[in-house]
Amino acid sequence: MKASRVVQYLLVCIAVALGLVLEANADCPLTRPMIEGTNRIFANRDLSGNYVPKLIQRVQTGEVLHMICQPDDIVETTCQPDNNFNPPLPMSCMNPMPATAINVTDAFCPTTMYSIGYTINNQRLELYRACYDRTNVRALYTTHTVYGKPFYPTRPDVDFSLDNVLSPADARTFTVRSIYGAFRRIFGENQTYIPNNRAVVINRGHLTPSADYLYKDQMGATFKYVNVVPQFKTINDGNWEAIERWVRGLIRCGGSLRIKTGAVGTLILPDTSRPPVPHCAILGAETKNPVPEWMYKAVRTSTNQLVAIFLTYNNIYAPERPSAPKFCEPVPCPIFLPNTAVAGFTYCCNGTNNFESDLMYATMYALLTYLHTHTYVTLLLIYCLHVLHSQSFQFPVKIFASPSIGMARSSRPM
């Protein structure tokens, strides 16, 4: 890594450190047993009296935690001067309310933006947002804020929820058996990409990872179909996991980072014909549930200073490292990542040039090619995008423009 890049990342770390709140100095420490033994929602009240989700571990003397089970079942516990809670933790209830995904207005999402969180007495406790293409069963990106924490509680064993966004049939296209059938249908009965209907080759890769949250309910809220894409398992468990761990490691002692994670493009693979014919890897009917070609994660400080942009090639069958797409100007990465297809070929991108506008162009281009409209209209829209792009038109979209508050399953915490 060049010396200038080393200095840059050191300055970023210093910037993060300036905003630290040392969790070890918490007046009433929330221990692992307290967190893992509680199924209620940890919440506070802001200065206006509105409920807000508790996102950090520190609890100051006199601070009141509002432990929510249902809107009519909220128990208060207070941090006492003797460093204990009264009433004591952990707390559980019989029927804790689940996180929901509701449609919200967001001009920066080209499809439908969902707020994932809880509604308590007409107040929204938002955990993250997901921009989702319902027509094509395709997650475009999510935004959230990750906070430092001293330990990682055990991930809850929860089912993925549909949230009335996609059908049970669409959800089944993520299952091992369905993926095997789709690959045989698309690439031929003798295809070798997926060896059988039991092999977990592609799984539901989280965009916003569960391990970025401390509390049990918040980790569980990431298990939603609006928050996953078809991702190759070895990549999910390889370079992608290394990137997620690196992000959390930056704020191990406290502070926060703003994250945008997304997927772009559709993976194209050759079939078994001679000569081979390329086909899009689409797991559902028609254009539904495409396997993305690239996955990206943009990391910024709480003051919006760029830390890093990672771009990973979602293709374990690539015979060699692909060229970086147009929207990524490669720069050295802050961590070592294996340069293999199985782990996921990864670039780090310069965010100071046209990464944002070029990425939006690529996303819009992909969406337009999926439109179920008259061919002439579709081609005309694509042509207009080409013209605008060639004239260096800057799409009015910023990587963090959307506000944030923040059945093949991976074997690792996501």
From TrEMBL:
Q: Name one GO cellular component term.
A: mitochondrial inner membrane
Give me any GO biological process, just one: apoptotic DNA fragmentation
Q: Which InterPro entries match?
A: DNA/RNA_non-sp_Endonuclease_sf (IPR044929), Endo_G_ENPP1-like_dom (IPR001604), ENPP1-3/EXOG-like_nuc-like (IPR020821), His-Me_finger_sf (IPR044925), Non-specific_endonuclease (IPR040255)
The protein's superkingdom reads Eukaryota
Spell out the molecular function terms from Gene Ontology: metal ion binding; nucleic acid binding; RNA endonuclease activity; single-stranded DNA endodeoxyribonuclease activity
One Pfam entry for this protein is Endonuclease_NS
Q: Which residues form the DNA/RNA non-specific endonuclease/pyrophosphatase/phosphodiesterase domain?
A: 124-354
Q: Which UniProt keywords apply?
A: Endonuclease, Hydrolase, Metal-binding, Nuclease, Signal
Q: Which residues form the signal peptide?
A: 1-26
Residue ranges of domain ENPP1-3/EXOG-like endonuclease/phosphodiesterase in the record: 125-343
Q: Give the record's family classification.
A: Belongs to the DNA/RNA non-specific endonuclease family.
Identify the PANTHER family for this entry.
Answer: ENDONUCLEASE RELATED, ENDONUCLEASE-RELATED
| Official protein name in the record | DNA/RNA non-specific endonuclease domain-containing protein
Q: Which organism is it from?
A: Drosophila pseudoobscura pseudoobscura
